[in-house]
Specification:
Elements: E1 5-12, H1 20-33, E2 37-44, E3 60-65, H2 80-91, E4 95-99, H3 104-117, E5 121-124, H4 131-135, H5 138-154, E6 158-161, H6 164-172, E7 179-181, E8 202-207, H7 216-226, E9 231-236, H8 243-253, E10 260-264, H9 268-277, E11 280-283, H10 292-299, E12 304-307, H11 314-317, E13 321-324, H12 328-340, H13 343-360, H14 363-377, E14 387-388
Helix pairs in contact: 1-14, 2-3, 7-8, 7-12, 10-13
Length: 390
């Protein structure tokens, strides 16, 4: 069979854009290694934003300029639709794979291009249909849902969920089209420079963007309730909408300045050093469709605390962490248990976590499953086991 020509659309590949800015290029690179012919079309935010990272595997990306109100992420681009249609025609695209929701400039444009060119379309909402996400700026989303978003989803051929919980969110909204349940993959970390020097205190690491949905306010309050002796919390990640100031103000009001260190955004290379130096990783999010940082921590042998707002029940199933409620009391219980555990027991949990990720979330297997779904969409193969039909 000929190699599949798939074109991904995504609002942004800038580091500030969150998890999909990493996972979508990684998926494209894995597909290229598997013999597909992927390409990306994305917005370019312009000055004042970090430059998008070079894509792995030589995958071509077309960047389309966009604009926006001062201080806001620029997401308006009347050129995007024409640029996308042009690339689809030039490459003889067979599958259009759209990422995210709600944006007229990219998501609605992808639906229009797919319809006009009669291309099968897969949509990866990437957590944007969770209860928390729908309630965040809900009035805007209710308008978009009525005007175009529901119709755009219903005219896709397949929805992509990264967890069973996300697939259930689709069904709860009455979306009955097939769902491909395929998790994100994770890269194995590059070799380290030997063991990190032992810090004077044990380290609990948070590494993600600083946004209200990440649950940092609850984490700080839980920390204040536990006050784990001999521990510090390292908060790594770029600020979004000034939320870092809110978290730091809470830290000061609770007199926890000596326990919390804010290190800002970290590079792809540096982040692995932070993982290796951590004794426990924490992701207290209210909502995550996957949570790639959990897999990254586990593959580095670090046990994880994650909330039930993330789809990481595997933490308890495989005994490599704590999967708890997102309220302060539940987080405090998990913090208390994690910091009271012995170094040896945490190391054993970390080893089980690494084995879990290597077995279940390696990119070659993810790319193979996605390719099987694409072939099914094109009528070139049977329905894959990962596809759920209503």
């Amino acid at each position: 069979m000929d190699d599949i020509r798939v074109l991904f659309t995504i609002a942004g590949l800038h580091p500030e854009s969150g998890g999909p800015s990493q996972s979508v290029p990684a998926l494209a690179a894995a597909l290229a290694k598997a013999g597909a012919l992927p390409e990306l079309v994305s917005l370019h935010y312009g000055n004042g934003w970090q430059e998008p990272k070079p894509l792995p595997g030589g995958v071509r990306t077309t960047f389309v300029p966009c604009s926006g109100m001062w201080g806001q992420r620029p997401l308006w681009s009347p050129q995007f639709e024409a640029a996308l249609a042009g690339r689809c025609r030039e490459t003889n695209t067979q599958i259009l794979h759209d990422t995210g929701l709600w944006l007229l400039a990219t998501n609605h444009a992808a639906a229009k291009v797919a319809a006009s060119l009669k291309l099968p379309r897969m949509v990866s909402p990437r957590g944007m249909l969770s209860g928390w996400a729908l309630n965040h700026k809900s009035w805007k989303k209710k308008i978009a849902w009525s005007l175009y978003q529901r119709r755009d989803l219903e005219t896709a051929q397949v929805l992509h969920a990264t967890s069973m919980a996300e697939a259930q969110e689709f069904r709860a909204l009455g979306l009955k089209l097939p769902v491909a349940m395929i998790p994100n993959g994770v890269e194995l970390p590059p070799p380290g420079n030997g063991p990190a020097p032992e810090p004077p205190r044990r380290t609990m690491l948070f590494l993600s963007r600083l946004h209200p949905k990440k649950g940092l306010m609850e984490l700080v309050r839980a920390w204040a309730a536990v006050k784990p002796s001999g521990w510090r919390a390292v908060i790594a990640g770029g600020d979004e909408g000034g939320h870092r100031m809110d978290v730091e103000n809470l830290v000061r009001s609770l007199r926890l300045e000596n326990d919390f260190e804010f290190v800002g955004a970290v590079s792809d290379i540096t982040k692995w050093d932070y993982y290796r130096q951590a004794d426990v990783f924490v992701l207290p999010s209210h909502s995550e469709n996957f949570g790639i940082v959990v897999a990254e921590a586990l593959v580095c042998g670090v046990p994880v605390i994650a909330t039930r707002g993330t789809p990481w029940e595997d933490l308890t199933t495989y005994r490599c962490g704590w999967w708890c409620g997102g309220d302060v009391e539940s987080l405090a219980t998990a913090l208390r248990e994690a910091t009271a555990a012995t170094d040896e027991s945490r190391r054993e949990m970390g080893l089980r976590g690494r084995s879990l990720v290597e077995d279940k979330y390696a990119w070659p297997g993810i790319a193979r499953r996605m390719t099987e779904v694409y072939r099914w969409m094109l009528g070139q193969g049977p329905k894959p086991e990962c596809v759920i039909e209503s």
